[in-house]
Amino acid sequence: MTTKGYFYADGVDLPPAYVHSVYNVLSALHSMPLEAKMKYAKPHGTYSGPDVGSSEDAYEVGTAASVRSFDYSRVNFNNDSSETHYPTLPGNTTDDSVDGCTSSICTKSFLDDLYERQDRIAVALMVGFAEMLDLPLTTFSQHFTGSGGGDLGTIRLLHYPAATSAGEVHTREKANLVGIAPHTDFEFFTLMHQNRPGLQFLVNSDASRETHDAGCSMDGGDSAGSRHWVDAPVDDAFLVIAGDMLERFTNGAVKALPHRVLHTQHARDSIIRFNALKADTLVAPLDPFVTPSRPARYSPVTMKVHMETTMANLKLGKGAWAPGVCPGDPGTSLTATYQYGAQLIEEHTRS
User: Rounded to an integer, what is the distance from CA 195 to the centroid of its chain?
Assistant: First the structure.
């Protein structure tokens, strides 16, 4: 995690057969006719995509994303007991009935079961992060479970339509159409599963991002060439990807991992769980990561304010990714290192 920003996690709560059932639900949702999708489209539902006029916000200014998504969150959406925002699917979508739905799949209940399974894995991973970093074991998990409301996490069931030919891929790229533009995830970490290639990670060959951020190197140091895109392998296990909050807690010792999705000549699906923290969690560099030679580089911010600010900036067209300034430079995240005002810590302390 400290060198690459990701690793693989396997767990009994998400065995291959269960993951296969999630892909079946994902496929059924995205196979619905357009008029049905319109019924569940944002802002009244949880579906988004260019086919219903609700495209993904542009993470890189000037780009447009082709991804379609059905989302689920216990906190961010209206999740009352009805199925208003989630279609009911045929019972043969998965081998398992959920909450007594034997002839149909109650989609909301199915996704909440997935959320709960991912929560259990998330707690184990947060304890593992703390142990890896020589911190008290509850350093991170205390901000994920317990009193104070649920985390601001989200499940996304993503579908990327195929480009029918190499020529169409080229045409889309010339028009700045992407699967998803480069970005870092805004939360603490992400659980990600993909069924086909297309995801890419931005990795460092040698030097760190701090040198890159300092400017263009002409002497073989951290030039643009030391940061390059690599294909993320397709595996039965889930990928664990570091997010903005993990970078900020560790004062940059663990970097949020930039990633993007390319256009491909095959359709691609992925199961995403953004693992955030409780809304009022104050995130700032922890003491063990702040030294005279490495002072705090990140301003304090709550999970809620970081999410709200990031989404507001996207709505304003400011993006979440800065293009590179050097030849061949792939750019850098705007959200991981975003600087917040000093009054934020004072307001949080008073509250």
Answer: 17
Instruction: Note whether 295 and 284 are within 8 A (CB).
Output: no
Range 5-15 average pLDDT: 84
**12 three-state secondary structure:** coil
Of residues 218 and 160, more confidence is placed in: 160
Q: Residue 215 is encoded by which pair of tokens?
A: 């400017």
Cα 284 from Cα 192, distance rounded (Å): 26
* Among candidate residues 241, 229, 336, the one with its CA nearest the CA of residue 5: 241
Q: Which two tokens stand for residue 330?
A: 């792939």
Q: How far apart are CA 81 and CA 197, in angstroms?
A: 36
Report residue 48 as tokens.
Answer: 């988004």
CB 305 within 8 A of CB 280: no
Read off the pTM: 0.88
Residues 6+ positions from 35 with CB-CB distance below 8 Å: none
Sequence-ordered alpha helix ranges (H) in 133-254: 166-174, 209-214, 244-249
Where is mean pLDDT largest: 15-19, 167-171, 271-275?
271-275
Instruction: Give how far Cα 210 sits from Cα of 56, 199, 221, 223, 257, Å.
Output: 29, 25, 12, 12, 14
Residue whose tokens read 């619905």: 32
Neighbours of 61 (CB within 10 A): 15
Contact 154, 274 (CB under 8 A): yes
